[in-house]
Specification:
7 strands, single chain, alpha+beta, Alpha-D-Glucose-1,6-Bisphosphate, Chain A, domain 4
Length: 143
Amino acid sequence: MYEILLDVPVKASPADVFKAVSTSEGLNHWWTEFSTGEPKVGAIYELRFGEDYIWRAEVTRYVPDSEFEVRMTEADTDWIGTIVSFRLQPVGNLTWVRFSHVGWPVRNEHYRISCNCWALYLRILRRHLEYGEMVPYDARLAA
């Protein structure tokens, strides 16, 4: 199995970062076009990335202001069963976002694209939390 691991320092409180990575409203600001779901273990999130990309994920870990994790249940074939997680660590006036997307069955083209996309999306998350920037969904991969 293969992994995507990224660490991002964010000048924001763990509570603000946690809200951004664990709530539908937060996810819509930096990752999804539109999402629904409740941040609690066992809940199912619907993650929309356009008409042809409506994915689902089950919350598998929820520790307020600290850890949020989902297992992809409906998605592109190579994402199904993978785990996307955010572990937050306060350090001074920063929150370190320790991101992982683990369980990739193969290192294929989609894996390589996702490595790049996650780095871009996490940058958008950081800029949104630090500067209030809002990047329209259709422009996010070019930001």
